[in-house]
Amino acid sequence: MRIPRPGRTAAAVAAITALGAALRFATLAHQSLWLDELYTRWLVTLPREWMLEEIPRTERTPYLYYLVQHEWVRVFGASEAGLRSLSALAGTATIPFAYLAGAALVTRRAGLTAAVLVAVNPFLVWYSQEARAYALATLFVAAGLAFAAQAHRGSTLAVFGWGIASALAIATHY
């Protein structure tokens, strides 16, 4: 098999990302919220100050996801689809970072394979449909890996990207 040219590669990554988005967004509201998601909804609909006081008492997850979700529900609502759409977006955004990491570490073909695996992996799709911090943490870890791979290839600017992505991952989930 011939390795696609950069223009074709970008189109392939876009198509794979669209497939992953379809898998993640299509059924966001088909199931009711379960216990942890109900708790997320309760937390993020509190006034911000109360939410920040409640998180260390009741959660083992850092603040970042809840702060982002708190603002997210103000725009998209606290319905099943509204709450879960942040995770679906994060899960979808993970796909091109998987490509970038695979392409930088191995080859473009490996990057495309990684992107396909992330797009259709049942566990990653599942976590991208939960109103919890898992998909956002996965996004930051994938971004960190992609930046680390670029830094390994000599990009000094990528070192900063790696540091920021890693800090965000830690601030999202321990």
Describe this structure in words.
The chain is an all-alpha fold. 78% of the residues lie in helices and 0% in strands. It has helices spanning 6-25, 35-44, 48-58, 64-76, 80-105, 108-120, 122-127, 134-152, 156-172. Helix 5 runs parallel beside helix 8. The protein is globular.
Question: Strand count, sense and closure of the main sheet?
Answer: none
What distance separates the N and C termini? 41 Å
Class by alpha and beta content: mainly alpha
Q: How many strands?
A: 0
Rg (CA only): 17 Å
Helix-strand pattern: HHHHHHHHH
Mean pLDDT reading: 95
- What low-confidence regions span 5 or more consecutive residues with pLDDT below 50? none
Shape: globular
Tell me the number of helical segments per DSSP (H or I, 4 or more residues long). 9
Content of β-strand: under 5%
The percent range for helix content is over 70%
